Protein 1
Amino acid sequence: TYRILPDEENFLAVQTSQGVQPKRFKTLPELIQLYLQPSQGLVTTLLFPVEREETTEDRDYSDEKPPLPPRTASTSSSAGSALVSPDTVTASNGLSTISHEYLKSSYALDLEAVKQGANSLPHLNKTLEASCKRLHGEVDKVLCGLEILSKVFDQQSASMVSRMIQQTVSQGGDQELEHLVTKLAILKDLLSSIEKKVHTHTQLNASDVSFDSTHAILEPKNHWLLPNFCTLKHVKLDVYLADLTKIGKSQKYSLSVDVEGGKLVVMKKMKDAQEDWNTFTHDKIRQLIKSQRVQNKLGIVFEKEKDKSQRKDFIFASAKKREAFCQLLQLMKNKHSNQDEPDMISIFIGTWNMGSVPAPKSMGSWILSRGLGKTLDEMAVTIPHDIYVLGTQENSVCDKEWVETLRCALKDYTEIDYKPIAVQTLWNIKIVVLVKAEHENRISHVGMSSVKTGIANTLGNKGAVGVSFMFNGTSFGFVNCHLTSGNEKIHRRNQNYLDILRQLSLGDKQLNSFDISLRFTHLFWFGDLNYRLDMDIQEILNYINRKEFEPLLKVDQLNLEREKNKVFLRFAEEEITYPPTYRYERGSRDTYVWQKQKATGMRTNVPSWCDRILWKSYPETHIVCNSYGCTDDIVTSDHSPVFGTFEVGVTSQFVSKKGLPKSSEQAYIEFENIEAIVKTASRTKFFIEFYSTCLEEFKKSYENDTQSSDNVNFLRVGWTSKQLTTLKPILSDIEYLQDQHLLLTVKSLDGYESYGECVLALKSMIGSTTQQFHTYLSHRGEETGNIRGSMRVRVPSERMGTRERLYGTLYTETIFVLDPFEGDATTCKNSFNNPAYYILEGVPNQSAALASDMLPTLLPSMFTRTRNLT
């Protein structure tokens, strides 16, 4: 069948496949004239034009009679007259042509067959089958949609329709018409019974409606935006069967989630209106990957064969639709899978400067966190961790050999085959991440990066390597660095840190306004940081011999620089209770070698804690350091390996216990006011941008409406509720919102440059009354101001259910609050209400006095309270 269609200019052309230039004609006879000739791209030549006398809408066929068909020599007059009785109605579209052809040629053959005693009319059957071919597809489409809708409200609905359709595809011949009649009968029964099912279901569940099945409506997407092989667009959750288009092809798709049956059905529509079904059981759906760049994009990883998988990407109508679809898939997995999603995992962090020497045969003490300092109990050292992250410096072993060495070591001590998910190298600086096989499909969005900080920032002998990924719904970042050596090069090391912080490309690219210390739920930073002790060598050795580490930690350069807010702003480090890890005599851990011959002369390397592990986590998240120490039996290098183990709370795909929300069940994040002090001599206007994974897209406030300054280097700006946007989370359940965080960046109107960023936890902001917050602003690793305000997260009463978690126990947290009855805020070292801060930052003394008067009313006091997370 060839379709002749008019274009926008009313020229006629035969419909062609994609990419083929159509030939255009003003009239139908002109078109037929060309296609009467052979070799014009058609299988058979066209015969003659049949123009429409009137449009279909204007004609009334009730009183018309069809023309008499032409007769062959063998056709009797009586037979022809019988076939064209006055009561016959003219057929429409191609059916009249098919009937015309049958009467012109095949009818005589059937007539002869009947004369010879035949009981059937084979040519008529073929004609009818051809005429009803499209009807087959349309009936299949309607039946499938109605069957799915029926299953939504009746989980015991029979699957006979699906079986019948499959049988129809495989059978043909004389049974085609019989199957069509059967389909029509079933269609009649479904239509008459489905209303009763829905009515019964709605009566039983009027107070709590939730769906077990959903579908997807998708439309084409520009192919250059997304991967060609499986990109789909505009997914709309619905309970009816609907179409979607695959990029580059004119095929149609539809999705269906059967929660009770544990199946996801992907339906592909063919050109003949038939449908190709691909069914994936719950155990074949390996992973859901939510795009960070496109909030409504979802990747589904299907298992094809053993150890092989295929990813298909879909773009939903909105982030809310994607989230609802993910909830249904996760609900299906939870219902049928024996494997629960974890809400807490254990992470091992290791750092070791190997001294350009291969590792010893046994690294058990490092892997098992045995040695000096805070170590694990003997009963716990044999418990395998979920994730191992090992950073090395001066590691001359090739990547492949080093990964295999670590895998074998883990297998020896844990009897588990760990899977490497990331390896990143910069010269001899390496980071390797290995996970349990059961977690492999929980990890997505793996990113890797490196930064050189060697001579002129072009050599990789110093620098950092980093890895980031998502573990279900929790983001992780890991940085292994090797900073400049030398007791006197403190400022150079500080600059190394800032260069790495600003240049390492990890995490969600939508958060480019934020440095990597704010892009991750949990960020771990470790390596040979090379900060030394500022004390005479003999005093250091005496303190070490007496195991008195506290006086040494007071002169530790890293601790001193952190107190000045020069590096690792708001990072944490577990208490150090082990001796300095550098510089030992190789082959022994009894002697420090503090003199080193260099080309420029004798160099002093005092014993120091060069090898460190620090971390930074979002507020109100769960993280506990269970061990932090060093080995005392690995002696191949002049550094001792350092280990740290962490218990970390994680989130998974949220599934509401309340079912899909009603339109009225919407949570809101509302701000009454925000006030900020930013470090700037500029007097421009500012606005605030809000980012969060719980929002469909980032939001902006209007420009500030108040502005003042009592200090030339600082500006106070304020917003009222009129300038602040009300934010609508994707989901409204309190359990979901308690895990969410809001990232804020204060930007100027002239140039859109950020003057400070921060992160707020929504958990303590949830309630019926306004809550107050206060935190510090930072930009590019430096403290640039502070911000406070009043806000609340309003959750509908219907979405207030929560669940208990493994780490939902009593804990102590330090929270900033605004006390309106307190006249003077407590002066804290290195904070903006401390005049010394301004002196440190180069502000004149007279300005510092003004600042100390201006800021106490802005900054909160601190208090400690205990809260039950459950």
Protein 2
Amino acid sequence: MLATYNVNGTVGALLVSLFISTCLFGVSSAQAYLYHTSFSRDRLGWKIMVLTVWLCELAHCLCISHSFFLVAITRWGNTAIATEAFPRSFAFSILLSGVIGTIVQCFFAERIRALSRSIVIPAACWALSFVRAVLVIMATYEAFVTTSVSLFEKQWKWLVVTILTLGSAVDFLLAALLCFYIKQAHISNDYPGTSFVLKRVFYWTLETGLITGLAGILIVICLVAFPRNFSWIAIYTVLVRLFSNSLFASLNGRVMLRDGITSVQFTQSSRGGISAKGHLPLPLYRPTLPRAHLLVTMPPTLTTVDIVLFLAIGITAYALFRKIRAFHPPYPPGPARLPLIGSLLKFPSSFEWITYHRWSKEVGSDIIYLNIAGKEIIVLNSLEVIDDLFDKRSTNYSSRPSLPMTVDLMGYDWLLFFMPYGSPWRERRRQFVQHFRPANSSAYQDSQIQYIREILPRLLDDHEDFIAVSKHAVAASALSMAYGLPIKGTDDPLIDLAEHALSTMNTSVLYSSFLVNVIPFLKHVPEFLPGTGFKAKARQWRKLQEDLLARPFETVLQQMNAGTAQPSLATTLLQRMATDNDQSTWDHERRVIKETAGSIFIDVQRNAQEEIDRVVGGRLPEFSDEKDLPYISAIVKEVLRWQPIGPTSIPRIASADDIYRGYYIPKGAIMIANSWSLLKDPEHYPQPELFNPDRFLKDGKIDMSVRDPVRIAFGNGRRRCPGVHIALSFLWLMTATMLKTFNISKAVDEDGNTIEPSMEFISGFICKPAPFKCSFKPRSAQAEELIRSVEMTPQTGESVQL
């Protein structure tokens, strides 16, 4: 935002608004003086009210004059004023504006009570005005404590919009109710003079509600339509003057009626609700009093201020329309949309990548547009589009959108792949790549060999719990790399903590999981209100996130203090970036291993085992064997393709408006790459539902002409997973080691009947298979002896051979 911040558009608007506001303060001061001289016998409460409003006006004028002087004079030429905090005087002026607005609205609500002789409707207006006052106090506090103007606008724009919208709604409601009751009095009163007065009151009251309500709407339009400056602040300062003038003019309007209609005697009517004491709910009146004959002969017309406001609203609306329409080709095709809610009713609650693929086929486009209750989503369904946008235009498509549930409520803002594009993200990624670069394979391969081989005896003794065993290998290797922590047993508390935390994160990240992901404003709703159960979940899940971030690192610090820490990323960097490794790369691996164990068909397994036996003989595979075991590499590629663990990419965001293939991609649109659609493309993978590693082989070698699933499974552009080489090396060695030692087949029940895998998957950011059973049996007595020898041999990366 700061790079596109328009200083002139803000400072100029502030100076103009200061001039207008000062002029209107002079008007309100004249009106306050006129009131106290003309209505010295009015009730004491009204006099105190007028004095209070005028004093608040005076304090408000001094505050904004001071704050604008700081911005326009003291800090003249400072192009980074958006990065600085609000002047204290301006923050205090927000509170004063709330006090004035609340008093004025409560006054007119009291007029409704006098006319309607009912407390119910005025009470509703008072309640709404009270809610607005509470929100203004909240905004005042945040203006005091927020460190910069731009941060306030980013974090609390919703609060400002709510205050303005609620204020306008109350103004319109008050005007409508006053007009209604005055109209009723007009209909039921046959006396010509009184009828004339009521007619004038009706039009003035309509003006009063419109002028303040429309001004509030104008501020909202500027806040949304002109993000490059803070001109909305300028209009907000003028709104306060409109409130006070409407109050003073309403009271002083009785002078005009008395001077202009001398023949009319104001008597209390049982139907009209009008008294000689001035209980007329008269609207905004400007201080220039017309002569009596002009009052009688001139038809009701809008005043100069009204005309100026209407012109300003028209110009702003036109500018907003031009902003939207200028250089705005059509959106990409997509499903039909309804007003306001868009395609919300059609949005799937699970397995959305399948629906994305279907929509793409239905509209005949590999790029589709969705609008879900105002949230714009662009789904990319081909590698060509992904390469064009995420690689060739990576500057515009490398940041992350806000994930309210996962990032804001659960606190995963520190996680590398959720961080927005910028300096902190680049620094984290640089540290990771530097430590785990392929040339520094010793930083991860030794631990991978150790923990992969350690699971072999466990699979031999407890093959039914192969999921927990494989999970142990992945997590143990990850923790060893990241923190240098040894993991003992499959029920290690750190592994259980990581598993639980990852499970909750997997649930929270999808837009279809929680409504707050679609309507971020809901994250501010108090937890005690109905429909906010997600906040209780987020609070509980946040504790898991905090423990996952803190526990391993605290252990490393203790070991470093004791001099027993093992070399790791944590000991090298001493930053929590280490935890990113445990999440971003290893969760992907563990899920793939789970599929590998249950998905390799008998013929595929046999071919792989023949290749392994031919190359490695009577020892366990090593990383140096990879070039001679292409079939194992093909199996890994097919596992990544056949049932993708990450069916969609982590969402990105368009940092600026863009045009691609003649389609308009708006700034802030959520960009999703549908990896599932790419990996199921029959043009590149014939019979995509068939598990067939041979599709990647030609003449006994990897066929480089076949699209590599690795390009899709681990992301594209600047946000490509930096640990892809670590994940692939682990998957390759795990697959080769397991196939070297075990025959993997379908499980059987107690009666010897084969148990068919359900082939069901659990929808989520990580789409994992539902629990299933399979059988791990040693391939031979020699293989079992090889497995048992692992228990007695220290794992240092050296071969175990019989």
Protein 3
Amino acid sequence: MALALPQSSAVTLVKTDDGLERALQAFRSVLTEGQRKDLDAIKDVPDTNAVLTFTAELDAKRRTIKGQSIASRLYSILQCVRDFSSVVETFVSSNPQIAALVWGSMKLTMMEGHSQLYNSLWQSLEKEFAPDMEEIKNRRDHVNRELDLARTQAALRSQQLQLNEQTEASSFRDTMRRVTSQTNNTTKDLSEMIEKQRARERRKLLLSALSSHDHISPHRQNCKKRHGDTLQWFFQLPELHRWMAGDSQILWCSGKIGSGKTILASSVVNYILTEKKTPRELITFFFARFDNQNSLKSETILRSIVRQAIESASMIDDTLPLLETLISLDGLAANTLKRLVTKIAKEVDKLYIIIDGLDECEPVERRDLLNTLASLVALNGGIKLFLSTRDTVANEIRRAFASCEHVSIGRSTVQSDISAYVVSTIDTLLANDDLVVTDPSLIDDIKKALIDNSDGMFLWAAFQLREISSKANDEEIRKSLSRESLPKDLTETFNRALHRVVSSGKGAIVQKLLPWVTAAARPMTLDELQESAMIEICQVSSMPERKVNGIHRLSSWFQGLVDVDEETRSVSFAHVSIRHFFLGEVDPNLKLFSVDLDEADHYLGEICSTYLFFSDFQTALARRERPKPTIQPMDLARRAIADNWKLGHDLFQRSDRRTRSTSSTAVPVGMDVSKTLELYTRGDEDPGFERFQDSHLFLAYASSNCFFHTKAFSESKSRTWPLFHRILQHGHKLVMLPWTSGLGQDLDDLAMIDWVCAVAHAPLIQFISGRSARWRNKKKMLPPHVAEAFELPTVWNIYEDWTFLTDSGRVELAWNISCRGQKDALRILLNSVTGVHKEEVQELSLFVSAVSGHIKIVEILLPQVFNSRIGASYGFAGAALLGDFVITKMFMVAWSRYNGTNDCIEPALLTAIKNGKPELIKLFLDEFVSIAPSSWQKARLVALSYGRDQVVESIDQLEAELGDQLLGV
């Protein structure tokens, strides 16, 4: 606010204080209310610092204004006013407020003047810069409008971007959802595929563990040999239709050798496959082959049948858990296989089982198989069993099956088939120029001669056609067709073929090949024969220049005695009768072609051992330095397990308990089999194995069958014994263990024992007999009816003092051998033990053989047991318990002949009375005088307790009649 000062002042100071007072009042009158309050607030006379304080206050009030300080420039005038106020105070002492008001007026005026000066300066600046400010304002407004527009546009752009982002995000989320869903589905599908693959691998492993036998190839080969118009008569037989559609469960076809039984069996398989009405009718089949030793075992046949049934019934997933459990528990014994077949048979309408060549199996294997099949048929009405065999096993078939449909394949039944075969084959030979004649009428003569003289044997007709085709002219053909010229039987036919071999100049190569074709563990291929046939024992390395040239002509070298399969290139005799011929029926003039099976088998073992140590394979051999003490020949076999497996469990840890000769200076082999085996891994996992196999085609056979062909090896007769000894002692990466299963790579000592006993491998039997072995349930190894009998605790307690439940290798071997009736293995076992251990094996083997029904072994052991005076009470009582009249009588006769003790017969007497079979009890009553009275007293008490009143009466009557004689007993 501006001060309203008068333009002129003509004030005259008459009285000093009055004038000042009036001036101050006039000054107050122009002040505003606020200014007057500020003036009144100044009461004191300024002190020396008042000017400094005032200038500081002025600067403080304009501190927001840029520029230098202005208040300091007023310092001089302000100092004058302050001084004037002091003078006023001096002269106007009566009114001291006047001096204060003078200072206050000056101070207030200065402040107001300062404000006016600032305002005037600022107003002049505003006027100066007003246009610019207006322009700036206008520009500011324009800028603000532009900013507002930009903000609006930015907001719209942002909204559009957000909308686009939301749209893209939504699309991306949809895409991600689809991708995620697809990924999840793909992952799920992949997981399912992996699980299915694992399940397939698991099924494959379990099924392979069940059976890896190729049952298809023999059937396929048989089908190739059948001529289209043959066997029509068989499919019209009422026996066949009763068997397929009626209540008959068994159809047995028998015939002489070479009558076409095997072709008939394959034709039955095809007929059922085409005639079966629903998928619930399953068909399984098996062809036992003379040239495949594994196919002649009852276990192999049963396992193959079970596997086919599981796969055909599409019950793999349902059956495999049970199969896996059973494999882990008992390794699939016969009882377990029957359980599996029974389970499948209950799920289907019909289960066909076709088995050919049962007569080729060993008697023990044949009996086991027939017993199992008979049990299956009795338990399952839906099982249809077809058997084709030679007539030689007729009694065994009839004993096993109470009733069955029977078709005999004789000359009359197959005559039409022989005619069709001869006609068809001659037409083919003529078309291929393999048979050439000048006189067309000679063709009919050939047909008639062969049909009339074949005697129902296709094989005979086939060889005559081959011989006729080799003739040079019609005259020779006519001479060969006369009754005198035609061979009378197959033996003469084969001898003629051998004469043609000699005349063709191929006798030497045929002799080299014969041991391989005759004694091989399986049919060998042409490539394997080409490399192996000319190897010499103890040869150092492979010699390609010795390989047989033109091996593909092998069948012609043998004049048709062997066949070569077109697909597998495997070589085998054209018929089992040809193998039998070479093993014993060769013409004396052709003895060089005769084959001794044992010698041939040993020769193959020598070649396999030689081959595995070729210098070609040195990089694949397992080497380990160790002390080499002098070793007894019997001790060498202990290394048989130290082969090529890494053992995951403890095996055979007990020290050798065999008695040794103290006179021997040889160092015994002190070894831990488990530690030895841990040094080696499987040979077929070595990368070098496949590399060598590509260039050494015999390696696969040699590595897998080395043990099979060395079962009769010994230091005295085997030239390659040092090499075999090296395999036993140090192992060999290229040698595979033949007893291994497909479920793992750990050595299974029980599987090894089964294999060793089955093939009667002498070195390994000698090894096991002196070691401990993993124990297994002995009762499960017995035949089913025997195992059931021994389920009764009161019965088993009779034998609880016997060391059945030990882990002795001798005990395991004795049980295994005796349960299966393997005489050769038992002979080796008895020769490998001495003293008390031999007596233990004899008595145990007698008991197991007696309850298992192996009459031949009982006959062998009874004299040994009674002569050794070690007793036979366990076997005697076991036979009586099972009610086996024949074996019980054998024990009774031996007891009487060898003056057996009363302790031997008493348990059998008491068991027979408990059994209650009259024919058994009569055997003992007939020996009443020979048995001690104390035993009859016990027998009388047992008869009373079991309610055998008739037995009590018989005992009392005999005591009364033979009282005097009893006193002398």
Protein 4
Amino acid sequence: MSILKSGNKILGLLLVLAFVAVVGLVLPSAASAGSGKWTKMDCPTEKGISAVWGSSSSDVFAVAGGNIILHYDGTSWTSTPAPEGAVGLRDIWGSSGNDVFAIGNNWKTDKGIILHYDGISWSLMDHPIDIGDHGYTKAIWGSAGNDVFIGTETGGYIFHYNGSTWKQMYQVPPSPFGYGDEVNGIWGSSSSDVFVVTALGFIYHYDGSNWSKMFKCTDEYGEGIFLFDVWGSSGSDVFVGGYCGSIFHYDGEEWRRMDTPVNSPEGEDRYELFTDIWGSSPSDLFVLAICNWQCENEYTVILHYNGTSWSAMEIPEEASKYLNDVWGSSAHDVFVVGRAGTILHYDGPAAVDYTLTVNVDPAGSGTVELDPPGGTYPAGTIVTLAAYAAEGYAFDHWSGDLSGSANPAAITMDANKNVTAHFVPALPDLTITALNLPADVYKGSPVTVNATVYNSGKAGAESFSVAIYVYTGDSATLVDTKSVSSLAYGSGTDVDFTWTPAAAGQVTLKAIADSGNAITELNETNNELTKETTVTEKSVMNISPADKTVTVGETFTLDVVVTPAVVIAGAQFDLSFDPSVMEVTYVAEGNLLKQGVTSTYFQAGVIDNPNGKLTGVAGAITTPGAEVSGAGTFATVTFKAKAQGSTNLALSNVVVGNKAGQAVAVAVTGGSVAVTAPSPGGGGGGGGGAIPSTPVEQVNPGEVPVAGPPTEVGISFLDLPAGHWAREVIEFMAAKGFLKGYPDGTCRPDQPGNQGGICGYAGARAGASGSSRRSYLHRRSAGRLALPGHRQRFPPRPGQGLQRQHLRPR
């Protein structure tokens, strides 16, 4: 053995010892072997023995001959007469060797008998059980010395002892024909989990407060089966024996009839009655079975259940064939009693040697050492297997009768075993174990895709790459490739990618570890992981135009536009800006929600110019069930430039919703405005502007606000070139509350009353007078003129100016 190998072995043993120290594990040794046979014990009486119970293997009690109490001290049995009047003893139970109860019946006094042993002597207990009223005492069991239950036959009564007095507790219901049921067996896992079986085939349960009918055991004709006894290893592992060779099992959820030598397909109804049950575990059950005429000379047999199958056990020839009760302290200490002073003892299964065969795969890839060495072991021996890899290999896992990858590992020899140690080349093995991204993915919105790479191989991985691809149909697009410098075996790392979906629809993401095939791996086919996701489009709210340049004093408008990705029915937003550069003067509803809709609601919001805010602009469709899907202007906001500078326009508190009031995903884009100085000689749209020789056509009409609340009507005008004097004329006349002149906007000084109107003002501003100077107002513009405080629109009247008397309040 090499030094390295010796060191590995020592290390392995140290790991095992450390594990034992940490978890407090006590490694079991092989159980002491028995003879595997039942032997007849010497008994001081030849009378029939009814029941047996003990507190340990050296403290066992039995009742016999109606009035005899037997005791076994681990060496021999002795006999003690019961107190005077104590006759007809038939069952025994105790909470300890100093707290034992025995029950019987005195036919002469017509009273039940309850005896108690305090560790020194037996004495009669006071109780209310009357044979004539309640029936004969039949079964006894308790969870403690102050929680003892007795059942009676004929009457089906249950009595309870609380540590000081016996009281009637419950009576199982009688048969439909009026005769009483019988309590034949009692057992429980605790004071609040007690089972009772009866002659009519019923199983009753006590939960610590109430008794209830739990189950009825029936034969193939639906008739109740006579039940004899009940025992369990826990509240979810309970066995009941009865007539017709029946054993029923409860697993904590339901009762099920078991396959026994009686009702299995190959059985021939050999065992008729299962009268008594005891076990050391769910896989070590002893049952007394009365055999029918097919059993030759036998009458009672002992059946054993190993958790899988049943078998009949041999009993001594000299033993009585009539057996009554079974009890044990362990699998290696079981007592059976019966007629004619029969006491049988079972000391456990006989010693068995088992063989452990060890293989290595592939051949020459390593070795396995056994502790203890050898290969053949007594039953129950625990063998530790330690695998050592040859150069260039690493231990991977066990197979056969040992599984997992723990090394060293232990196995219990309870049968012949065959184990194979598997070794693999000492190489890395990269896998993608997880591919995560947000649940909601939107076109054009970046998301983080996280790939978890794990090295499940047997060696560390040097530098390698991880790639993410997006598949749309058969088309693949590389998202990005990231490098990982190294990854130790048995460890993992997360790699993040940023992906901006270019189109909506169903796509598949694929992550590939070692996408460049830079390293050799144990498995080159497990490097990929895919995940499907759906990319959806967001509705968009943006400012249009996104960037605008205006001059100081200019009034201008911007639209808040919504482009829906799904049908919508409402929207809202807040807007912020630099109040030193510009201010909001008016907010109007756009056409977004009016597309084919009969009615809408619009809230113009609150203008807070000192703080540069417009808040609470909202609108909704009020036509029931209506929605819109086309893009449009949600709101038009009118501004006035105050001073040179620039400002960002930020949209916030943005919600776009459907008709159910649910918000839909929305992308938000703001804008910016630059305010410049007026052109030289102009300013604010007044003086010195070049005058076209022909009237200027109407282009991009807008709204010019007037003094007063935002709800007052603005003035429609031509968006003439910056600095054109006609704009200031309109603003001036509108501010004065009147506009004298002709609807087509021409200046005619030869007509009465015009010298002080447009002509006089325009001439003074333009430095000229006379009919050669025109205001250059398009005739349709004058038709849309409206003055502050008035809703009335004034149509053009050829040949007649708009006079003050034409104005009417709204």
